[in-house]
Amino acid sequence: xxxxxxxxxxxxxxxxxxxxxxxxxxxxxxxxxxxxxxxxxxxxxxxxxxxxxxxxxxxxxxxxxxxxxxxxxxxxxxxxxxxxxxxxxxxxxxxxxxxxxxxxxxxxxxxxxxxxxxxxxxxxxxxxxxxxxxxxxxxxxxxxxxxxxxxxxxxxxxxxxxxxxxxxxxxxxxxxxxxxxxxxxxxxxxxxxxxxxxxxxxxxxxxxxxxxxxxxxxxxxxxxxxxxxxxxxxxxxxxxxxxxxxxxxxxxxxxxxxxxxxxxxxxxxxxxxxxxxxxxxxxxx
Length: 285
Description:
Layout: H1 7-13, H2 15-21, E1 39-43, E2 49-54, E3 57-58, E4 60-64, E5 67-73, E6 81-89, E7 94-101, E8 108-111, H3 123-141, E9 161-163, E10 168-171, E11 174-175, E12 182-185, E13 191-193, E14 198-206, E15 210-218, E16 221-231, E17 238-239, E18 244-248, E19 258-265, E20 268-270
Parallel strand pairs: 8-10
Antiparallel strand pairs: 1-5, 2-3, 2-6, 4-5, 6-7, 9-12, 10-11, 12-19, 13-18, 14-15, 14-17, 15-16, 16-18, 16-19, 19-20
């Protein structure tokens, strides 16, 4: 797997050069919700800001109206309170800008999984899981120099929300990481469509996520589609909004067919509903 786009190399060797080369885009912004798992919209202090980073990760900068705005993904584990963006100026100076993150309480979800290995993997599973975790981490952390075409998405599949983002999850009464995506209930075989344009950066069949597709929309905005019954795209392929990338399934760790849709922004898993042009409905899975 080619890793020239990895953030560590990017920051070390080409931070200013690539950011200077990438023009700002005028587009509609996602909905601001400065909470853990949300998105902060930070207005930049001037037109001479060439780059921004948060917690060592490059941050998307766009033009909205007459303002240049940093669109910052906030990790679910981020503590509430005051935080700072690191800003680079055209003159070579490095300054910082403060912004505040509010607290948010996410509900609990208790799920019973029949396949015990998907809750407590056996020793023979761990080598595969660790290898896949590295692959997934790379795909979600990648920084593509191309700008996103837009920051407002259509739903990848029509259906009610069966599990919202951020739930504190318990599988067979064992605590696990919070739910870092949005589950959409849909019948097996329902087409899954790209919510925005981008490049297929990777695909795979993973122990927990099942058949999975990653779309890199550019500048640290990556979306993920899990538990597919079929994958219809290949790495390197360009997709347009509405293109079919696969079919809803029940592969990996699931209780039934649905789509797990994840959004990663500057390597932070954030609430996909913040990027939707229209709201979604909730429903039982």
